[in-house]
């Protein structure tokens, strides 16, 4: 028991030393102002700086006011490393849950950077339990809230500072998988994807954000419950096909949940582009492949031009403008087709659907493209068609026809007078080496 108490005192001393070292590095004045704003001076007067409350409040201050909006980039990097170091030291105490920022803390950080509450949470049916009134602006940007709506996003803070927030959130999501509940993870993913679509964010940390979303997807406990709501929440973030591709690029393919989400979103986006709304997307593989074949039949560039000519807003556009826009839309649709055709099913199961997709690709898209030296964008679309077709052919190469067939179009003749051979009694499950003489 005494040994445990001694370890606790030593651990608290390490935390206190880290905070003291931090104050000396970034300047005593700035830290004292920030600490007083959150009421931590009370703990300092009482001599309870070693308490867990003071330590956690100190981490919250580092995250809310220093790591994200400190005017010096070099100092902000040091603050981030110190905050991660303090959090790592707290992991030695197994009885104490490490502090991680809440959804309110994250929203406050982005509000301090100049983002309005409605931009953070754009969907009315996915809103947190707090409102914009609960977001406290940091002291250095006290006058930011009055002009936030008219200013562009991140006009007050260097864009590189958001990378520190994303890095720390990814770190916390990895070491503490229970940092957020499922609904908070859903709201946070929608928030991050919405920020990624902002045009003012040219240096957005894509790789860090990619890793963060991967960790958040893995932390969802009731995936089957959250999954349908996440599908349609992400699909409502934009209506432009270029943004659809941009959103899909952030969905990780290294985990099964990410691949499932990416495949389903591709079908939703294709339905939105071709039909203007999203129909019910099936969850099983067979139905999804049938739907994909039906969607590809509507992807002729010439058909897209005719549909665009019917819109009143396109009446003033020339035929060349409509042709370019139609091929641009086809280019995005082909990227969605490529993602929607990916599957974890064995190649033998994918075979018949890949053959159907290859036929649809050549019949409806490749044959409809008329290359011309004056229209290089058509050649670019045709090159993408060739790459997708080549990938599907490679998958077909690693699969094989059904049992007993040399080719897909050949049916073996069965002699009814002869007894059935042992080969005919074998199930239709694929074998690794069907033609092995050994």
TrEMBL record:
Residues 409-438 are annotated as: Disordered. PANTHER family: SMC5-SMC6 COMPLEX LOCALIZATION FACTOR 2 (PTHR16046), SMC5-SMC6 COMPLEX LOCALIZATION FACTOR PROTEIN 2 (PTHR16046:SF9). Residues 62-279 form the Coiled-coil SMC6 And NSE5 INteracting (CANIN) domain. It comes from the Eukaryota. InterPro entries: CANIN_dom (IPR044276), FAM178 (IPR026161). Belongs to the FAM178 family. The lineage of its organism: Eukaryota, Metazoa, Chordata, Craniata, Vertebrata. Residues 426-438 have a biased composition (Acidic residues). This is Coiled-coil SMC6 And NSE5 INteracting (CANIN) domain-containing protein. Pfam families: CANIN (PF14816). Transmembrane segments: none annotated.
